[in-house]
Automatic annotation (TrEMBL), chains A, B:
Domain Isopropylmalate dehydrogenase-like residues, every copy: 5-340
Mitochondrion as UniProt keyword: no
Protein name: 3-isopropylmalate dehydrogenase
Subunit structure: Homodimer.
Catalytic reaction(s) noted: (2R,3S)-3-isopropylmalate + NAD(+) = 4-methyl-2-oxopentanoate + CO2 + NADH
Record's keyword terms, sorted: Amino-acid biosynthesis, Branched-chain amino acid biosynthesis, Cytoplasm, Leucine biosynthesis, Magnesium, Manganese, Metal-binding, NAD, Oxidoreductase
GO biological process, one term: L-leucine biosynthetic process
Pathway: Amino-acid biosynthesis; L-leucine biosynthesis; L-leucine from 3-methyl-2-oxobutanoate: step 3/4
UniProt source species: Dermacoccus abyssi
Residue positions binding Mg(2+): 219, 243, 247
Binding residues annotated for substrate, in chain numbering: 91, 101, 128, 219
Length: 344, 344
């Protein structure tokens, strides 16, 4: 097993703090089998040089095995600029068409839902499409600043893009116990994209006779998520609906401080990127208050992606043990990272 | 006070059952001061004649003071057809640009949220834009059925459409105790529409010095809705985000069985339409199981819209009293309607 060639983008706000703990755990579990290259990207660089993601840096990123990202976004940059030109650009250019976001209610974790709702447990994974939908930046504005201003946003969807995502969802479902795929969309209104998604799920579904599938409108899914989340096993959905539903999923399984994600290029044509679902939280940056657990769990997804299943599992177990033992006493970012590393 | 000239579209599934109770309460509170005209629209008509909404019927609808709608949508019709050609067409043609959806956690109501979350109460109203956004049917499909199929959906937004909606939200906030408007969008990704929404809120906000306003991304709003819903007072948002967030809002305040809505043309250029947020629920249709409370509360919104505030308040009070007295014993649709009517 050769060392992991890891690109690290700590990024903005709490990014560097949580990434430090992720790296601590990654080093510990692999016995230092990680060669890191740190990339200075985000608000600091933009403020200093005006650069978001130079093409040469993007090319360098391609050369690594895998990327760990903290968080991107800062009030010092124009709103949305770093998100679009850095974070989303990496996802698109490296063809991260699977945005994988597992949600599991772990023992000891406080959820905002009543006990009657969570009694049956929560354990599902969202396969969010990562390179299409309303996220492609297509659209425009006319007569800006006048009373007749207009703005459009175009959601772009292809059979190619949807099929590979849906197939990934069925593959994952096939390996799980309940073997169920749920498509979330809004086909009664967004009929062009909606029908393409539905037909694709139908057709790919035929190739997986052991996997059942159903459908829910995205609005109805909101209700299920807070009244009957145990019904979900594998959710597949588009880029925007996936963004929305995974924040809700994170909230009901203990909060954004625990939610891990992978931006995956399954064929390995480019490195995949792992990151916590949370943002840069500039209001608490630098105070040691951020929970690094989401980043630590993201390193577990990272290892699993590299086929290092055993190490991945050990991180997950350490996190589970730490969560079960968490008291009401608040701990610092470093204390949580240390505690998890000690349990490995 | 002349009689209310009411158009009734009972519609599909549980529509007729819940509308019957809404009319019962409306008759009782107004002492029969309602002249109704019933319109046979929905799946039955479509199956019999192939018609969804003939132009002549649309013209007739325009002649009434106000419309009460049950629910639209049935498995016997092509998916989404009745929703688009009947329900959405009415909203668009009658320029129902305000889709008003109040959310209040009432005493005695069971919520899926933990007590710690609901302790501070929930009482907000969503002002959902009703005639633009991704709901206009713009988009298309290419190479349908081939591996190279593509589908687009276009979100259309205008300063005109947004400004009148935002102004309505500020007007409502100005009359409420907390006087706060929260815009929900995703401007870091949907930058064209997002910036138009944000600028409009900023600018209209200047005209309302007593009203504060803030912003949340739609994904972050999911988290707030289940962890800190008391932060919301008046939410303003686009057609699709409003669809999504109001189902979640309904769920956390006791479920879709209680959620009322108004599709409003504030200037009265066309009749406004009131309807429960829930759908036609074909699986329980005809069984007397549907909760008519959402429709009954919609008749309260209807009366308030007509300036009959006193009657509107009496319905709300009757519902509040009924909810507070609800035991665990299930009651039929008619029993609930009767119980509420008795309390008027
Ligand atoms: C920061 C933003 C562009 C991003 C997204 O919308 O994908 C974030 O919300 C996420 O979910 O990873
Ligand atoms: C039935 C459907 C078209 C409708 C919508 O999306 O507006 C419904 O979900 C609603 O919220 O009233």
């Amino acid at each position: 097993m050769s060392a992991i060639d890891l690109a690290v983008i700590a990024g903005d706000g709490i990014g560097p703090e949580v990434v430090a703990e992720g790296l601590k755990v990654l080093d510990a579990v692999t016995n230092g089998d990680v060669e890191r290259t740190e990339y200075d990207l985000g608000a600091r660089r933009w403020n200093a040089t005006g650069e978001t993601l130079p093409d040469s840096v993007l090319e360098e990123l391609r050369g690594h095995d895998v990327i760990l990202l903290g968080a991107i976004g800062d009030p010092s940059a124009p709103s949305g600029l770093l998100e679009r030109e850095l974070l989303l650009r990496i996802r698109f250019e490296l063809d991260h068409y699977i945005n994988l976001r597992p949600s599991k209610l772990l023992p000891g974790v406080t959820t905002p839902l009543a006990e009657s709702v969570t009694a049956k447990g929560i354990d599902f994974v969202v396969v969010r499409e990562g390179t299409e939908g309303p996220y492609t930046g297509n659209g425009g504005a006319l007569r800006v600043g006048t009373p007749h201003e207009m703005a459009t946003e175009v959601s772009v969807n292809s059979r190619f893009g949807i099929e590979r995502t849906v197939r990934d969802a069925f593959e994952r479902a096939n390996k799980r116990e309940r073997k169920k795929v749920t498509l979330l969309h809004k086909h009664n209104v967004l009929s062009y994209a909606g029908h393409l998604w539905r037909r694709t799920v139908e057709e790919v579904g035929h190739e997986y006779p052991d996997v059942t599938h159903d459908y829910a409108h995205i609005d109805a899914a909101m209700i299920y998520m807070v009244t009957d989340p145990s019904r979900f096993d594998v959710i597949v959905t588009d880029n925007l609906f996936g963004d929305i539903v995974t924040d809700l999923a994170a909230a009901v399984t203990g909060g954004i401080g625990l939610a891990a994600s992978g931006n995956i290029n399954p064929e390995g044509a480019a490195p995949s990127m792992f990151e916590p679902v949370h943002g840069s939280a500039p209001d608490i940056a630098g105070q040691g208050k951020a929970d690094p657990t989401a980043t630590i769990l993201s390193t577990s997804l990272l290892l699993a992606h590299l086929g290092r299943e055993d190490e991945a599992r050990r991180i997950e177990e350490a996190v589970v043990a730490d969560l079960a033992a968490r008291g009401s006493q608040p701990r610092s970012t470093t204390e949580i990272g240390d505690a998890i590393a000690r349990r490995l």
